[in-house]
Amino acid sequence: xxxxxxxxxSDTSIRYVAPDPLGTGDGMSAxxxxxxxxxxxxxxxxxSLQDHPVVVKFIGGNYERAYSNNSLRIENRGxxxxxxxxxxxxxxxxxxxxxxxxxxxxxxxxxxxxxxxIVIRNFNFTGDGSINYAxxxxxxxxxxxxxxxxxxxxxxxxxxxxxGATGATxxxxxxxxxxxxxxxxxxxxxxSHMIYNAYGAKYVSVVDSYFEDCPGDYxxxxxxxxxxxxxxxxxxxxxxxxxxxxxxLPLYNDGTPFPGNEEFATNYAFFNNSFSSVYLNxxxxxxxxxxxxxxxxxxLLTPAEGAILETGTTAQKTALxxxxxxxxxxxxxxxxxVYSKVYTDILLRSLPDYGATSLGYSGGxxxxxxxxxxxxxxxxxxxxxx
Length: 386
Prior knowledge:
- By secondary structure, the protein is mostly beta strands.
- The chain is built from 4 helices and 32 strands.
- The protein has one domain (49-56, 64-384).
- Strands 1, 2, 3, 4, 7, 11, 14, 17, 20, 23, 26 and 29 form a 12-stranded mixed β-sheet that branches. Strands 6, 9, 10, 13, 16, 19, 22, 25, 28, 31 and 32 form an 11-stranded mixed β-sheet that branches. Strands 5-8-12-15-18-21-24-27-30 form a 9-stranded parallel β-sheet.
- The chain is elongated.
- It starts with a strand and ends in a 20-residue tail after the last strand.
C-alpha cells in the first residue's frame, strides 16, 4: 500500500525509486523501490497526481545509468494544483554521475520538458563525462514548462559539460527557480556555462546560490530571456581566465535563421550578490551583441556612438541603450552588489562579426551608472516564490 503523509490539509503519496529496483520494485516503500528509469512507474505517479500531491524519494546511491543507459526524462508530467516533488537523500547521497566514456557525449542526465509544478530537491550531479547539460529544463514547440523549482542541488567537478550544467530554454519555459544550489569546477571550454538560460525562457530566478570556477559564463541569459533575477548569490573565480562574466546577457547574431534574430530583453533584477576573483580580469555583469543588428534596431555602432558608450554622460549612455539596444535602464535593477577584483562592474559591448557590415566601432563601455539602483523591488520579482 502506498505510504501517505498529511501536508497542508491534503494527503500526499510517498513513492520510492533507486538506481536499480529493490524487492518487488513497485515503489511503494524504500525496501521495494522502483527502477528510476521505469516509465510505467512514472505513469502511475502521473495518475496519482490527478488526486493529490506526490513525493518521489530517490534513495541514496549512484544514478549513473542516467548516463550509461538512458537519461531520466520528466516529460508531460505534473499537475496544476497537486505538486510533484523529486527528492534526493538529505545527506547528499543521491548522485547522478556523468561517466567518462571515450568517444561518447550524452545530451543530459535529467530532462524536464513540457511539465509543470515540480520541485527537484537534493540531487547531486558530478563526473567528467562529456555531456551537453546535466539537468535540462525546456519546452517543445507550442508547449509549456512552468513552475519548476530546483533547490538544494549541487553540480561539482563536471569538466565534461559542453553547454551548461543546467538551464531553462525555449519560449514556453517560464517561472523556473534555482535556490540554495552549489556549482563548482564546471565546464571544458569558454562555451561551457553553469546556468545557461536561452531562447525566450522567462521568469528565471537564481537565489542564494554559490558559484566557483567556470571557463564560461556563471549565469547566462541569452536571447529574449526576460524577467531574469539573480539575488543573494556568491560568485568566485579562482583561475587566470580573462574576460569572464559572472552574469552575462549575450547575443550571437550570426545571420541564422535571419540577420538579427536574437534580441535583448530588458526586465532584470541583480542584487545582493558578491563577485570576486583572484585576478583583476573579470566583469561583473555583461551585455553583448556579436554580429548583425535586428532590422528595427542598431546594435552595431558608429565611432561617435562608440565614444558615447565609452566616455559619454549618464544621460547620453541611457539614450543610446534605449535607442540602439532597447535596453531600458529603469527596468534593470542592479543594487547592493559587492565587486572584488572585477575589472568592469557592468559592461555593454557591440562587436561586428559573422559577415555583418561594421559601422566603424567594435568595443564596449561601463554602463553601471545608468541602471536602476534601488532597494525597492519591481512588482514582478516575487514571482519566483511559487
